[in-house]
Amino acid sequence: xxxxxxxxxxxxxxxxxxxxxxxxxxxxxxxxxxxxxxxxxxxxxxxxxxxxxxxxxxxxxxxxxxxxxxxxxxxxxxxxxxxxxxxxxxxxxxxxxxxxxxxxxxxxxxxxxxxxxxxxxxxxxxxxxxxxxxxxxxxxxxxxxxxxxxxxxxxxxxxxxxxxxxxxxxxxxxxxxxxxxxxxxxxxxxxxxxxxxxxxxxxxxxxxxxxxxxxxxxxxxxxxxxxxxxxxxxxx
Length: 236
Hints:
Blueprint: H1 23-32, H2 37-49, H3 53-66, E1 71-72, H4 82-87, E2 92-94, H5 103-116, E3 119-122, E4 135-136, H6 139-144, E5 148-149, H7 152-165, E6 171-174, H8 180-191, E7 196-198, H9 202-206, H10 228-232
Parallel strand pairs: 1-2, 2-3, 3-6, 4-5, 6-7
């Protein structure tokens, strides 16, 4: 099982400077644009793939000095050296864009992050319920003939994580909620004094699944837009 790597964030523009995704390409890009943190993160990714963790941490430290990113890691296979990365300046840990779906690995991640005093930020999406899904599950998805993405896929992960974290006490943040059921789980946890927080994106408060009816991909997102009933129940 390979060591997990910094997430490749070329979608933020680094690929324009180092399209080959090699160490030589990153070094050449940094010679042209030394203050571009995205290139540094991608170089760290390449170093980490070669098990050069100390060099990868150095790249991360340089990037953090330029811009206060959280630490993005691929935690889906094994845990990174969270302690070393926290000492290097990481302020939070996340697999954003992918859910840490393995419960055993999630428990170990919560313990490791708890020791550092940092926050774990979860992308709440049970993958087995969302494969091939493109919009909110329900009557509209059925009518359009597309695979639906149930709100339960989000709620199940938050409920599981909150339960796992209860004896651990790690700072836990549920990212970009789209369901009132998720908000209720977070609210209940906070009422018990647990270190749980969350946020809702503006589009999940202001837009609904009807926007997708014309197949306008501007409204296709992760998590998907929900029904008006679920949207109205999101504000805490």
